[in-house]
Amino acid sequence: MGKVYLVGAGPGDVELLTVKAVRVITSAKVILYDRLVNESILELAPKDCKLVYVGKSDGKHTLPQEEINALLVKFASLYPVVVRLKGGDPFIFGRGAEEALYLSERGIEFEVVPGVSSFYAVPAYAGISITFRKLSSSFAVVTGHEATGKEKSIDWKAFKDIDTVVVLMGVRNRSFICRELISAGRDPSEPVAFIERGTTPSQRVIISNLREVATSPPQVNPPAVMVIGKVVELHHQLRGLLANLRELTQKQKGVLHG
Ligand SMILES: C[S@@+](CC[C@H](N)C(=O)[O-])C[C@H]1O[C@@H](n2cnc3c(N)ncnc32)[C@H](O)[C@@H]1O
Which of 116, 134, 154 represents a domain boundary (last residue)? Predict the structure, then answer.
C-alpha cells in the first residue's frame, strides 16, 4: 500500500505553500483536490501525476465524503504517493481528521502536512491582525455554516467577550450571526470585515458593522472570511503598508531571479 499525505494548500497565494507541501506535491502520483485549492498549485505536480477533482461543480454537491474516503483507499492500493490537497489547513474545518481516521482504521499509512489557514492569513493580507496588544487579547474561530438546522447549534452568547471573532463559511448566515452577536451583548457599532477570495489577485475587502450587517447586509460572495472586532480598524492603516511590502517583495524577487 502507498502512503496518503493530507496536505494543506494554503488560502490561495501559491507562495503560501509550505516547503514540505511542495516536496510532497512534486513527488505525487495522484492528487485529489478541493474547490478552494488554487489550481496553479497543480502545475507543480509531475507530468504523469493523475489529478482528481473532488470539489463542487456547477451547483452539484461535493463528492460525498464516503466516496472520497473510498477513493483514497483505492489510490493507496495503486500508487506509492497519494496527495489529498485541501484549502488552508486540513484540520481547520477541512474534514482532514475524518479522512485520517478512515485511513488509520484501515491500516493505511498517512501523514498530515499542515497548511497556512485562511482564518489568519486572509485577514493578514487585508491588513487585519487578529490579535493586537491594545485591542485584542483573545480570538475565536467559528463556522457560520452550522447556525441553523443543527441538533446542537452554536451558542453565540459564548462569543460576547471574545475580542476578535473570525467566522469561516459565514456568508450565507451573516445577518443571522450579527443579530445573534448583538443579542449576546456586543456593541452594534463594532466593525465587521469580509474578505473575499483573500490572498488572490481578486481579493476584495468589505468593511461594515454589526448593526448594518444584521439589518441590511452588504453584498458578499463566498469564499470569504468574516472578522468581527476592533482590530478591523487596523485595516485602514495596515493595508497600505502591506501593499508596499508586497511591492518590495516583488522587486526583491525580480532582483533574485534577474
Ligand atoms: C471548508 S472551510 C475550509 C477552511 C480551510 N481548511 C482553512 O484552513 O482555511 C472554507 C472556508 O474557508 C474560508 N476561506 C478559505 N479560503 C479563503 C480565501 N482565499 N478567501 C476567503 N475565505 C477563504 C471561507 O470562509 C470558506 O467558506
Answer: 116
Check residue 244 and give its pLDDT.
72
CA distances from 204 to 43, 195, 199 (A): 26, 6, 10
Mean pLDDT by 10 residues, the chain (258 residues): 97 96 98 94 97 77 86 97 98 95 97 98 96 96 75 88 97 96 98 96 95 97 98 91 72 55
Last residue of a domain, one of 116, 145, 173: 116
Q: From the candidates 56, 74, 157, 160, give the one annotated as an active-site residue.
A: 56
Identify whether 256 is part of a domain.
no
Per the CB < 8 A criterion, the answer to whether 231 and 128 are in contact is yes
pTM metric for this prediction: 0.93
Sheet holding 164-168, edge to edge: 139-143, 164-168, 224-228, 191-196, 204-209
Flag whether 161 is in a domain: yes
Please state the atom number of ligand 1 nearest to the C-alpha of residue 116.
Answer: 8
Mutate to test the pocket of ligand 1, among 117, 168, 173, 221 (most ligand atoms within 8 A of CB): 168
